[in-house]
Amino acid sequence: MTIIYFILLFVLISVFYYNKSPKDKIIEKYFTTNKNICKILKTINYNYNDLDVKLRNIKDTSIYNYYCKNLINIYNSDKQKILSLINKTKQTIDSKYYFLFDNILFLKWKNHIDNGYPQTNKNIVCLSENFINNINVNDFKNFKYYGSVLIHELIHIWQKKNPKIFEKLYELWNFKKLNNLINDNKLKSIKRFNPDGISDYWILNGNKKILLASIYTDKSVDIGDVDYIGYYIENNKINYSKFDHLANIKEYTDIFGNINGNHYDLHELSASLLTKYIFKYDTTIIDKNSKAYKNISEWI
After folding, report:
1. How confident is the model at residue 1 (pLDDT cuts 50, 70, 90)?
2. Quick one: average pLDDT of 106-122?
3. What is the band of 261 on the pLDDT scale with cuts at 50, 70, 90?
4. Strand pairing class (201-205; 175-178)
5. What's this model's pTM, rounded to 2 decimal places?
6. Strand 209-216 relative to strand 201-205, pairing
7. Is the pLDDT of residue 2 over 70?
8. Whether 26 contacts 83, CB under 8 Å
9. CA distances in angstroms from 244 to 116, 126, 272, listed in the order given
10. Which residues are CB-contacts of 172 (< 8 A; sequence separation ≥ 6)?
11. Which 3 state secondary structure label does DSSP give 156?
């Protein structure tokens, strides 16, 4: 009887799934319950320093609890907005990049979380309530912006899934991974943590060795108050008295040219350049004549 019971149960479940509409199956592909989202968030190492916690106004002893309790249910209207953005974005890119949309989930949280910045954790695209509410693919200007953000975030998930592939790109850009920096404790205490950022130390390896960083200012009131700088590295040590804004460092601009946005981190840089390469309507200012952009076609 037990075997017969399980066979019947399997048949019923199979029939139920088979009879679901294609739209229902797509919705299940990209969305899950907040309970399941929290299970994933619990596995993340939130390597925050004291300023990261303070400027995010996190009061909880457990950081993942802070994020979980600020989740909002994704309603059907939200799902339709996200699906419309996915579908229209896919229509504008080469099908060989459709893999970016595989095995991903979306969450919605309150607007104040991390300044409302879109980001990823594991395979989850994290979006604020306002971000989702403002999606309107029927407005071309709106679509260009939101499509750019979507591809950018999906590239971050690709980076998490296949870090070794991206290391080859960074080597083309003349960066070298360092196993350690001898005096990095100060850096860890003032550097903004980015869930999409690269965790290892990669040094621009020219005549001068330069570490890219996003550093909180003396008057930071939220996580947006940072300077994008390059520290000079000497004998595997950071010279904290010798740094400059990235836009003023010739070794950096010789590779990346004129670029805006989050240009202080290799994962952010590659996501920005790849978005421009993949999505023809991308709104980010990218120098297509730069060495870094030209290397994309060689690497990809």
Report:
1. low
2. 97
3. confident
4. antiparallel
5. 0.90
6. antiparallel
7. no
8. yes
9. 28, 32, 22
10. 295, 298, 299
11. helix
